Amino acid sequence: MGMIKEFKEFALKGNMVDMAVGIIIGGAFGTIVKSLVGDVIMPFIGYFSGGLDFSKLSLSLGKGLDGKDVTINYGLFLNAVIAFLIVAFVLFMMIKAMNKAKEAMAREEEKEKEEAAAEPSKQEVLLTEIRDLLKKQ
After folding, report:
1. In terms of C-beta distances under 8 Å and separation of at least 24 residues, what long-range contacts does 38-46 make, across chains too?
2. Report field, pTM of the whole predicted structure over 0.85
């Protein structure tokens, strides 16, 4: 029974759930990027390259033992590389934006700490007033 309890604790940790959500969203994002590349970007590239369709680019190696053509589909590979570059660029921009936001928050916190350090606390103000009163006596 101890092993099941340990597994539940492991599987239900916040980090594990966050990772699972990230993987699911990543899969959905991959589908969107695949559609973006195949349905939006590649037609533009094909248009400007004279109607070239990368997905149909292949190199025929001849007939296989079963009599079917054996091909190397390097056009599909080019599509995959373009999709990867788009995903990498989008992630780079997201991480860059997140880092800027973190830096701005850190600067704001530092500014607040400096302002708080410059102003004496209520206790210090009270003690200063008591000291001043005692000096007058």
Report:
1. 38/79, 41/82, 41/86, 42/79, 42/82
2. no
